[in-house]
Amino acid sequence: MSGRCSEEELPPFPEPEISTIALEGKPSAKIAYTYYPPSNSTSNHPNPFSQTLLVFLNGLIMPRSSWDASINSFLQNRITSHLPYPALLSYDRYGQGDSDHDPDDEGPPPCHGHDIMSAVCSCRQFLVQIWKEHIEISNPTHFPSLIFVCNSIGCAIARLFAQTYPGTVSGLLLLDSIMANSDFVSFWPDPDAKDFDPHTLPPGVSLKDVRETRKKYRLMFHPSVPNSEGLSRRNLSQLLPSSSSPELEGQGGVGPYLTVVGHDWEEFAEQNFTGSLHTPKILTMTYLNPVWQMYNEGLVKITDEDKAIGPIVAVGCGHFIQRDGPGFVSGEMVALLDRVVNRVEQLRERDTG
């Protein structure tokens, strides 16, 4: 007789709650969210994640719906394996997706209505209210143990959250973090600089190519450029001047478990070329990818050495890893949960190539 459970014996797939909430102090604006309850605990099989909240933090462009495929893959994996899982929460920040704009912003979007620290504080208040409403009533506890799964600028928000509220974050999955200390222009060569040597350019690259690339990146990615969310990046390099510091304090006074993931160089270069930027692939490969790799190598130092994995490569994925590789994200979520609950040291060799 097979020991494998039949499909009928599997626990049901959790029904998500798709709703909105107003933060205390900002009653006129709603934040949209999707919440999955944790798996049930029994006397024989307690859920070790009953006091854990796994939170997804978006970048500037992709809303909370971009995590749906990764969440479904993760839950399917846990359910079919009869393994417990924590509560999962995705949300649209003010000005994103289905959420209202921040009522404290002055002027219509695009604007520099509020900064990253404002987003961090709003995130904290949001999580407090969600926790009280969904978990704390039946399971009294202090603030939950947080695991952040984040992309792009969401990684900066996660770092600043853990820095501002030490002891609250037990795990971080950083998916192609924004280079918080970059203006996204300076790493390209400047053809108009006095000391510029045109012979240093890669073969086939013209001065026009470089000038146009610098212009496009300045117009789209420079921190001075406002966005429809109203989330200003003008002071981000001051808030996070280094990728390797400060070192974060997780629960119990030790560093949080951390996985740092970078994009696939070839796929990212291809998307940059075929997308709206039309950046020549050789420029991305020569100037942008190496700088991003160095930034990711610094990120693994923000926790204890035995708590960090990475930087690893999301093969076949560009910057939006949750869009291009939801199965990959799901797998890394499973691995991170295993490390958090079992308090295991990382065994995977770091990919430094």
TrEMBL record:
<dbReference type="Pfam" id="PF12697">
    <property type="entry name" value="Abhydrolase_6"/>
</dbReference>
<feature type="domain" description="AB hydrolase-1">
    <location>
        <begin position="54"/>
        <end position="324"/>
    </location>
</feature>
<dbReference type="InterPro" id="IPR029058">
    <property type="entry name" value="AB_hydrolase_fold"/>
</dbReference>
<protein>
    <recommendedName>
        <fullName>AB hydrolase-1 domain-containing protein</fullName>
    </recommendedName>
</protein>
<dbReference type="InterPro" id="IPR000073">
    <property type="entry name" value="AB_hydrolase_1"/>
</dbReference>
